[in-house]
Amino acid sequence: MFLNSMPRLDVLSDDDLATLDAGWERLAAEVGVRFDHPRALELFQAAGQTVDGEVVHFDPDFLRAQVALAPASFHLHARSPARNLEVGGDQMIFAATNGPPFVRAGGERRDGTMADLERFLMMTQMTDVLDTPGRSIVEPNDVPLDVRHLVRALEAIRLTDRVWSGEPSPQRSAEDCLAMAGIVMGGAEALLERPAVFCNINVNSPLHYDVRMLEGLFAYADAGQPVIVTPFLLMGAMAPVTVPAALVQQTAEVLAGLALVQLVRPGAPCVMGSFLSATDMKSGAPSFGGPESAFGLYASGQLARRFGLPWRSGGGTLTASQTVDFQAGYEAFNTLSAAFLSGANVCWQSAGWLEGGLVTCFEKFVADVELIELLQQQFAPAAIDEASLAYDAHVEVGQGGHFFGTEHTLAHFRDCFWRPTIGSTDNIDRWRKNGSRDYASRSEDRWRALVESYQQPPLDDAVEAELVEFVERRARELGDTVSIRHGPVQPARREAS
Length: 497
What we know:
The protein is of the alpha/beta class. The protein has a domain at 2-9 and 67-378: Alpha-Beta Barrel (TIM Barrel), CATH 3.20.20. It has 17 helices and 20 strands. Strand 8 and strand 9 (108-111) form a beta hairpin. Helix 4 packs parallel to helix 5. The longest helix is centred in the middle third of the chain and has 22 residues, at 243-264. The protein is globular and about 80 Å long. It starts with a strand and ends in a 20-residue tail after the last helix.
C-alpha cells in the first residue's frame, strides 16, 4: 500500500457541485435505473422506492442515506498478514491489468494462455508496488471457459500471497471463488469476520444492471466481501459527450448500485468506482489518457470524498496505443498521475494495459511498474528538517566547489535519489556499446528477469490440497477436467515468451 498524504486537487466549485447534484438527482428520480433481477426490485420496493416494471425511480435522499451506511475505510486480509490492505482514507492500492484476451511479448501479439497468466502472477508477486493481481491479468484461452475461474483463482492463491479478486458472474462462479477464499481463511464465518476477496461489478451503462452483474453483487454482499461498483462510461457511446453529463450519469448509476449493496447487508464494505473516458468520434474506437479522462478523475475523486466513500479510479495506466511507444507512455502517465492527484484508493488496470484493454503486454507491465514507482516517490512528502538542509556540506565545500566527495554525499548517495530500473542515463557512447536499445527492448530483459527470479510464497499443504480437491471436483461437476500442477513452480527459462 502507498500512503498518499499530498493535498487533493479539487476542480469543482460549490456551484459546480450543486449543479451536478441537481443533475444526478433528476436522472435517478425521473429516468431511473433498470435492474434485471427480481430480488433487487423486491428490495427497492420494500425500501419505499418506485418500481415500474424493471426500472427503479429513486428518492435522492434514500440514496444518500444508503451510501452513508458504507464504511469510509475497511481492511482486506491476505493469506500473508504482511500483505493485508486498508482501503480508504489516504491509502492507495494498485492492481495489475485485468481482462484482456490477448498478450504481447517481444513484438508478437497472440491469444493469452495459462502459462502467460502464471508468468504475470509471478511478476506481480515479485514487485513491491502492486498490491493485488486482481481477477484475471490475461484470459487463459487454452482453459475451458466454464472452469477458467477455478484455475485463475487457484493460481492467484498459490503463486501470490496477496489479496485477489473473485469472479463476479455467473452466480456459480462467484460462489466458487467465495468458497475457495473460505478454504484459505478458515471457513465462511472467518471470511465474514476477515474479508479477504473482493469483486468488481460493472454497470451496463447507460442506467442498467444486468442479471449476471447483480448475481455477483448479491453473492459478495451476502458473504460480507467488498464490492466495487463501476460504471463503464465511454463518452459518446455509453454516456453523453460532455464530462458534466457523464459525471451525473456515473453518480446516479454508482449510488444506485451501492444502495443495493447496503440493502443486502447494511454496513457492508464497498467502493465507488469510476471508469470515464472518451470515444474517438471519427472511428468510434475508445480513446484513453486524454484531458477529458483526467478531469473526470479529478471530479470523481472530489465527489467520492463528498459522499465519504472509498473510490476506484478509472485507471490505471490506460492507453489506446498498439505498442510500447511514446503514446503509451504519455497516456498512461496522464491517467495514473490524475489518480494520484485526485486521491484514488484503488487503482485498477495499473500494469500491462495496451491497445485499449484488448492486450496485456509483458514489456508494458514492467514499464508501468516503474511509472508507479516514480509517482509514489514523487508523492511521498520530503522530510524537511535540520539534517536535510545539509549545512555542514556547505561549510565543507565553500564557494565554487562541488559536492561529489563531501561527507554528506558519501553518506547518502546510495539512496538519495530515485533510480529507474529500466530507464537509462548512459552517455551516447555507452548506450551504443550496449546495443542502442530503446526502453521497450530493455523492458523485455526486465520482465524476463522478474520471472526467472520468482520465489513461490509458502502455502499450508493441507490448504493447498483442499483447494486442489475443490477445483478438480467442481470441474467434474461442470463437465470438464483441469490440468493442475502439483508441487512448487519452477522459474521460467530465458527462452519463455
